[in-house]
Design goal:
The chain is of the alpha+beta class. It has helices at 48-61, 88-99; strands at 6-8, 12-20, 27-32, 35-39, 68-72, 78-84. Helix content is 26%, strand content 35%. The protein is globular and about 30 Å long. The two termini are 16 Å apart.
């Protein structure tokens, strides 16, 4: 993993995410093509998928949901997400733990 996947900011960490909607359940799938791949059970209707993404990432990184913000890509499968109140080492460790099984 390198800076293409996640990078530190003044307020926390920004990560590149790719979502797959209408999955059987919401889950973090691992890293693919320098993006965190996340399956979401919610459909891409009325912001439901974005809400599910914020919930899933908040749980993974042990953050309050309000500290997970979609910076860009609200209507796209590829998103840039900001995780406030955490640091790069912690985020990369959690991603590595999920990716290794």
């Amino acid at each position: 993993m390198n800076g293409a996947l996640a990078r530190a900011t003044q307020d926390g960490v920004r990560i590149e995410v790719e979502v797959k909607v209408r999955a059987s359940r919401s889950a973090v799938l691992g890293v693919r093509e320098q993006r965190l791949s996340v399956a979401l059970a919610a459909p891409p209707v009325d912001g439901a998928a974005n809400d599910a993404l914020r919930r899933t990432l908040a749980e993974l990184f042990e953050l309050p949901r309000q500290d997970v913000r979609i910076v860009s890509g609200e209507r796209s499968r590829r998103k840039l997400v900001e995780l406030r109140g955490t640091d790069l080492a912690r985020v990369l460790a959690r991603i590595a733990a999920v990716s290794s099984g």
